[in-house]
Every structure is written in structure tokens, then in C-alpha cells.
Write a structure and sequence with these properties.
Strand content: 5-15%
Distance between the termini: 10 Å
Structural class: alpha/beta
CATH class of the largest domain: Alpha Beta
Low-confidence stretches: none
Helix content: 25-40%
Strand order of the largest sheet: 7-6-5-8-9
Number of strands: 9
CATH topology of the largest domain: Rossmann fold
Number of domains: 2
Largest sheet: 5 strands, parallel
CATH superfamily of the largest domain: Aspartate/ornithine carbamoyltransferase
Radius of gyration: 19 Å
Mean pLDDT: 96
Bound molecules: phosphoric acid mono(formamide)ester
Order of helices and strands: HEHEHEHEHEHEEHEHHEHH
Length: 308
């Protein structure tokens, strides 16, 4: 039985704000654990977890793997390339074969929106969505919000968060919007009109196409990657023009009337969303986001396994 209100983690949409706060409080405990000389606890020593990745990943895959090892779970890793998926095996057959080897939980990244939801309806295991196409990336949103909480305290009310860039192709954007709104923050989206989904304001967010106005408004700006690999047409005239209008450099950051916190889920297109000076500068918390990812994923695995 999950200690959360939902038996799987398919998207932030399905979580209550109390679930999010429980995940954060549990992550606080695990954050202390992974900063000790002995970074392991035996909490999931009776569980076996399969990490199945049908899309490339560095951060999410390694972070889940480390989280599982820190909790003493047994793990198997599966990537589509080199597997029998290439011979035409279906997703459900693939996962049922993995589950037949006595696996309890599945962490899955898949290029198709809704894949994790579909899988949860078809197989008998706890499913964790590690990113499904341009739909949701719930663990990224949770580690992002946890990193903001670490910087600004537990109360999100009145906090102003800007999400800048390629919103249209981003699963991080949607999960962040759901998460931050549930916690009570204000959210503004900024980017070229072509990279903002129509009617996105119905999710209760503000939209502003002017980067400087948006940065003057916010306390935190989360810059998203331009996802060239998901683009089937030209969404802006040239990368140079995108950088001029939506890229952040140190000169612009210094010109703002107050210091703001800079985030990026990674991978970064250096020199496009952020210059290296900004990405590696003192206002950036990009590597804290990555560090927090392990504690957040430990908390999610632990709570979904029914622990409290
Ligand atoms: N932020 C993120 O999901 O990165 P990866 O694609 O490297 O996992």
C-alpha cells in the first residue's frame, strides 16, 4: 500500500498538495542520510526495481539508480536499444516479462505521452513516470520545487516563478506548473508565441513574451532547453534570434533591479538558454537541483513502497 494518495507516480496532476509536502518531508530525512559517511539505509532491501528507458537520459536514470542503491533495493536496468523491442515486442509484453522475474516497481521513461499511464493500467506493478514525451516529468518538478523550498523556505505563497523557453515541447513545464500551483506559488511563462501552447492560461498561469519584464517580475527563473529533437518545423527564425530574445547572459542578469535565482533541469544548450557565466554563476542552483534529485527519488520510492 502506497503512503501517497495514489499507488503510482504517473504525473503531478494526480498528487494532492499533502502528498507533495510528505514527499518533501521524507526527502529531508533522506537528504541527511546521503550526506552521511555511510549513505545507505536498508529500507527497500526486500524490493526489486526495474529502470526501463526508451529515451536517452543522464540525470534521471543515474539519480533513480543511486536512489535505489541508497535504499538497498535490487535493481535491473533496461534500455530499448539492444533489447527485443527492436524485434517488435510490445511495451506490455516487455514489461510483463521483466515482472515475471519478480520485479516490484518499474521506473519508465518513454517518448510517448501517456505511456506510463497506459502501463499502469495493463500490468501489476508500481509504475513511476520518469518522463513521458512532452507530457509530464513528475520527479523533475518535485526536485525543482524542493530546491526552491530549500532556498526560500516552506511557504510557496507569494513566490513568483518564471518558466522560460520551449514550453510547447517540455514535460518539465507542465509538471512544474501543476506542482507550483498546488503549492500556492505564482507562475509566469515566457517564450516565443510559437513555443507556448494555446490556451495555457487556463492552467492559472500568466504569460509574457518579454523576457526582461518576466525576469523583473520573478524570484526564480527556470530556463528550459530548446528541444530541437522534438521540432518538426521551424518555431523561430534562427537560433541567434532566439538567443537575443530569450537567452540569459550575465550582463542582462546584472541589469535586473534585484537578484533572482536561476534554474535549469538540464541538459543545457550552453550559450542558448544560458551563457556559461550564468549557468555556473552564484545565482544558479542547477547542481543543487541534481543533488536534490536523489533524495526526492528516494522519498518517492520509499513512500510508493508503502513506507511511512
Ligand atoms: N532533466 C532530465 O530529465 O535530464 P535527463 O534527460 O538527462 O534525465
Amino acid at each position: 500500500m502506497s503512503a501517497l494518495s495514489h499507488p503510482h507516480l504517473l504525473g503531478i496532476k494526480y498528487l494532492q498538495d499533502s502528498d507533495i509536502r510528505l514527499i518533501f518531508e521524507t526527502a529531508d530525512e533522506f537528504s541527511a542520510v546521503i550526506n552521511r559517511p555511510i549513505k545507505k539505509v536498508p529500507s527497500l532491501r526486500d524490493k526489486t526495481i526495474a529502470n526501463i528507458f526508451f529515451e536517452n537520459s543522464t540525470r534521471t536514470k543515474l539519480s533513480f539508480e543511486l536512489a535505489e542503491k541508497r535504499l538497498s533495493a535490487d535493481i535491473v536496468n533496461f534500455s530499448a536499444s539492444g533489447s527485443s523491442v527492436a524485434k517488435g515486442e510490445t511495451l506490455v509484453d516487455t514489461v510483463n516479462n521483466i515482472l515475471a522475474m519478480k520485479v516490484d516497481m518499474v521506473v519508465m521513461r518513454h517518448p510517448n505521452p501517456g505511456a506510463a499511464h497506459f502501463l499502469a493500467s495493463q500490468v501489476k506493478a508500481t509504475i513511476i513516470n520518469a518522463g513521458d514525451g512532452a507530457h509530464e516529468h513528475p520527479t523533475q518538478a518535485l526536485l525543482d520545487a524542493y530546491s526552491i523550498r530549500q532556498r526560500f523556505g516552506k511557504d510557496f505563497k507569494g513566490l513568483r516563478i518564471a518558466i522560460v523557453g520551449d514550453i510547447l515541447h517540455s514535460r518539465v513545464a507542465l509538471s512544474n506548473i501543476f506542482c507550483l500551483k498546488k503549492l500556492g506559488a505564482e507562475v509566469m511563462l515566457c517564450g516565443p508565441a510559437t513555443l507556448l501552447p494555446r490556451h495555457i492560461e487556463t492552467l492559472g498561469v500568466k504569460v509574457n513574451h518579454n523576457l526582461i519584464e518576466c525576469l523583473e517580475w520573478c524570484d526564480v527563473a527556470n530556463f528550459l532547453r530548446v528541444q530541437h529533437e522534438r521540432m518538426d518545423m521551424k518555431y523561430f527564425p534562427s537560433i541567434r534570434e532566439y538567443i537575443m530574445q530569450y537567452g540569459l547572459n550575465a550582463q542582462l542578469l546584472r541589469k535586473l533591479s534585484k537578484p533572482i535565482t536561476i534554474m535549469h533541469p538540464g541538459p543545457i544548450n550552453r550559450g542558448v538558454e544560458l551563457t556559461s557565466e550564468v549557468a555556473d554563476g552564484h545565482q544558479s542552483i542547477i547542481l543543487q537541483q541534481v543533488e536534490n534529485g536523489v533524495a526526492i527519488r528516494m522519498a518517492i520510492l520509499y513512500l510508493l513502497a508503502g513506507e511511512r
